[in-house]
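>> received
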Amino acid sequence: MTIKDVIEIKDGSVFVKDKVEIRNMMDGLIYDAVFESDDKKRRSLFILIKEVAKACGAVPSSTQGLYESMGMKYPGFTVPAINIRGLTYDVAKALFRKSLEMKVGALIFEIARSEIGYTKQRPIEYSTVVLAAAVKEGFEGPVFIQGDHFQLVRRHYLSDPEAEGGYVKGLIAEAIEAEFYNIDIDSSTIVDLDRPTVKEQQRPNFEKTAELAGYIRQLQPPGIEVSIGGEIGEIGGKNSNPDELKAYLDGFKETFRGPKGLSKLSVQTGTSHGGVVLPDGSLAEAKIDFDTLRVLSDLARRQYGLSGCVQHGASTLPEEAFNMFPETGTSEVHLATGFQNIIYDSNHLPSEFRDEVYNFIQKEYAKERKKGQTEEQFIYSTRKKGFGPIKKRWWDLPTDVKDPIMKELEAKFAALFEKLRVADTADIVAETVKSVAAKKEIDFSLL
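>> returned
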């Protein structure tokens, strides 16, 4: 039996005749699509799988309605936004399994500009793999897929602002076409601290955010309001403060032309992406200024109607810290490296395979080794790049290796969902989010 036996095409739209059989087929369908060598056929397979997912009830959606509701009254939970760098299909399936078990609706799948490059996952692949996982696990409802840190790289912007701005616009267009209906713009990198006032320092940031937000609004499909995030404090810098928040959001409001602006705001509270690695390869204890998060989230909601503030770089925090995010009114928290660590450090990952990946990293990225780094520090800071170039080797790991690793991840997801209080949020998502299935044309001649 093939996919053509269990779907029907009417007026160019896909209808699924047998959802059970589609679920049984999905492992093979998504594998064939990801590793198809012909680019045009690969794209057609991706679009077909996504249309099948929508027909099965898993619909790419925007958090806009949910976040507008949070802006009016904070419901007491923090939305986890999870970056998946490797074993994406398996990890997404684990997330959907745990979401179904715990009735989690408030959950975002995301990938950052930098990750798209080094994990070798273009937006259309990432969104399709996530939706394929939803179908496989029988998940129905809004699926939130997000472009994280769509960032202006400072050195590139200063040398050629038009080219760097054009690159980010191209990435935005690619992501929206791939049905990313949540996009975080990060132009905090071009804040100019040499200017005399806080507002003038933030001006390059809020003006560029307003420009890119307007571009997003031009591209979004009819009936879909993309949820847009801004950022005022580059991750790893000094902590953000109320004056910066007000200067940025007031400036954005004055500059942006459109009915719907930002839904959330990323701030700096003391973390760094991936954590700080000590010479022996262990992580230094991370600290977050939760008072800053509380003050800024309250201000963002009360005065500007945003959902609240967003915390980046939090996945390596101790587990007991996560209950503080809902308590401080944080609307969203971004998590990545901690899950990567579980995969790499699992006793179930064969040591010979881990050594293979590390040897690849040492050869391919030797030039990235910083002066004074120990071997452990170099491997820890670089192993995120071990997923993309040898992606097929990861996908081809046997199930008796992958399944127990996924069980470890599921346990972590369950603990985080409890701490962030997103269990039983499926109902509030259903009430606040209107999912619109944007139809994509499939070139069936290539299939």
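>> The radius of gyration is 21 Å.
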